[in-house]
Amino acid sequence: MIISMVYLMVCFIASLVALVRVRHCSLV
User: What is the domain extent for residue 15?
Assistant: First the structure.
């Protein structure tokens, strides 16, 4: 169960990073 929680956290962080990159590229 702990592994699944870590996996969800990694996916969440990855999605946030992707969102920030998209916003940064759109601003530039």
Answer: 1-28
